[in-house]
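This section describes the prediction task in plain terms. A model, or a person checking by hand, is given the sequence of a single protein chain and must write out its three-dimensional structure as a string of C-alpha cells. No templates, partner chains or ligands are provided. The sample shown here is typical of the held-out split.
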Amino acid sequence: MDSNNTRPEESYIRNLSDEAQREWVVNIIDRMCKAYQLEGKGLKGQLTERLGVGPSTIKGWLFNRRIPYHAMVTCFKDTGVNLIWLLDGKHPDLEITNDTETLLREKVVEHLFAAQNYQLLNTPDGINMIANKIIEDVKSALGISISKI
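The expected answer:
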C-alpha cells in the first residue's frame, strides 16, 4: 500500500515488516477469541458469528494486514475487555487517587486490627479469610472485577 494512502491510525503498523504486521493482526484475533471465551474447532467461524461479520472479513484483515478497529470496539462492548489489551496484549497500568489510596490503607488496617483481635492470623483459614476481605474491599474501592482472560 502506498504510504500516501495509509490511514493515520495505521501508520505505526505499516512501518513494521509484512510478517510483523500479519502477526499483530493474528494476535488481535486470538485475543478477541479469548475475550469471547471461544473454544474448540472453527474459532474464526465462531468469532465471525459473535462479531456479525462474514468469514471473508477476517481473511481480509489477515491478507491486508489491517487492524480490525471496529471489531475490537464491538468485542469491547460485548465483553468489557480492555481495548489496549485487545490492541497490544498489555494490560494498562492502574492509577488511583490519593483519596482512594487513603481509603484502601484504612480498610487494610481495619482488617488487620480485626484479625489480630480475633486471632485470625494464627491459622491458615483466618489468613485466607482476611485476605479475601481485603481483596473484596480493593475491588469495591477501585470498581474492578477479576478478568476471565
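For orientation: DSSP finds eight helices and no strands in the chain.
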